[in-house]
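cache lookup: miss for this entity combination. No prior model stored, computing from scratch. Input as submitted by user K.M.:
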Amino acid sequence: MTQNTQILLDNRPVGEATVGNFKAVTTDTPALQDGQVLVRHHFLSLDPYMRGRMNDSKSYAASQPLGEVMIGGTAGEVVESRHPKYQPGDLVVGMGGWQQYSVVNAAEPGALRKVDTTHVPLSHYLGAVGMPGVTAWYGLVKIIEPKAGETVVVSAASGAVGSAFGALAKARGCRVVGIAGGPDKCKYLTDELGFDAAIDHRAHPDLKSMSQALKAACPNGIDGYFENVGGHILDAVLLRANAFARIAVCGMIAGYDGAPLPLQNPALILVNRMKVQGFIVSEHMEVWPEALKELGTLVGTGKLRPRESVALGIESAPEAFLGLLKGKNFGKQLVKLI
Amino acid sequence: MTQNTQILLDNRPVGEATVGNFKAVTTDTPALQDGQVLVRHHFLSLDPYMRGRMNDSKSYAASQPLGEVMIGGTAGEVVESRHPKYQPGDLVVGMGGWQQYSVVNAAEPGALRKVDTTHVPLSHYLGAVGMPGVTAWYGLVKIIEPKAGETVVVSAASGAVGSAFGALAKARGCRVVGIAGGPDKCKYLTDELGFDAAIDHRAHPDLKSMSQALKAACPNGIDGYFENVGGHILDAVLLRANAFARIAVCGMIAGYDGAPLPLQNPALILVNRMKVQGFIVSEHMEVWPEALKELGTLVGTGKLRPRESVALGIESAPEAFLGLLKGKNFGKQLVKLI
């Protein structure tokens, strides 16, 4: 038995999420049953999709139940095993949730995945070489389907998904433009991640200004857009979209907290003969091996150097998560647990 | 030389289009050059897309130039020919415009198409077995890609595109629900066109009411939607869409006259993992032969009995067109010219 601090969803947000929605509890891990594995988490992943799960409303994913450990991806090591495939010391990623330890039914398909840290640091398996990276890959390769020379744009560009998107799009010969909040993140996009241009959305807080910034950054128009935020950025992209442009809708974080954010001029989807498509990467497990292979190579060869924001200790998870929703993170948001 | 009355676009609409935007003139047809054909129009087609052409704004299609004959599809007969492939008496369809006669360079690809009226009346080549029919076919077959048993919905359902859509979707084993204005059109949808259910949008003028009507008509949710109108109907469809629903965006007539109509909750595209795709049928000429063959068979065998609203005389075209924009037509809107 091991002491295990967990963060539960205590109550649902009314409007903006707050630390008061969460509650920390400490329990003992249960004794393992046959086929189970006890994993000590080194890192917890914090991701925008979690905000959607906190609501009770109809959503694409099941609501996070009240009083249960918050859902979340984790990377750690096996400390005890009653499953023949896993030995103490094995490094694994899974969906262990916001807690220090998890007991996993290892035989469940996809419950645990062993990872190799020779070329890729463990934490990156929660980011560029994990769900966020595959998310970028799916939106780019399967929805946007870019041709060399096309211009693609991504919002929340300095984050885990956006930075992977940039590297994947550059590898395909695209002009890549990133939108991020603040001059530091924009400088990081162009200087360290190899984006061709960056737009600071804080300097362009309305439709007209953002549209002009996109015009300057995308002299040949926009062929593909990876949508993480919604709101006036999406409206502006539609104004600058080329005929037959494709939009992969991965998130609309700007509307997560309250009233839906309208799309001002949907007729542009017709005018530009666009395709706008939403997706959830967990519904496309068939692409993960191919995507992870490419992403692992990009990271292993230094072509993708993802940045991380690391909070310390499980108790810091709620505040770090709320900061992520406001864009206070810089790169992939993690919580380090050991 | 033959006297030819033409309707020109005289000035552009400010807000709603009016008869004052048009001007009738009468001229003599010019003498034919080698390769030209003189066509006497029997029917002129009136279609919603023409409203978009009247504006000067950036659009997917070139603006209709001021002082020139309004663009439009026509069906008629060759009365004089200086092209070896055409003889007087040949029945042809083309883009002759809002006038009684047109002089056509017959060698231009797609300028004229001979048609056979053994099984299909001439006027239907402007509707079910013409551009509107192929429009329905493309949206259904290439974008919605329905499976048997799925539920598909079409707005402006009693019109030329909508009625063809219904027959094509029934032939594929779908549940087909039509939205139209007024009880007569709704009765026509279910009693004569074979729709499974009809919704009168005049009885459901707001989002909540339309959403409830869709829920009742689509007990298994909506898998595909063919969009002709925009506005609150589109918003309501998003609320009732199933996971992986597809929307083919063909028109947004509700917003043609003035300010863009927003889409209230675009995040539903993500929540439902939907595909929303705009298209223009003239950019997909490769599908026309296959589509026209199926549509001709549906009409020839009586499985599709399209209704027509026929205005008489070229001078009636402007008023008939404005009526079409308000949904005063019942079925395909034509002008009979002889």
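stored under new cache key. Chain A touches chain B at residues 58-60, 230, 234, 243, 249-252, 255, 260-267, 269-280, 283 (CB under 8 Å).
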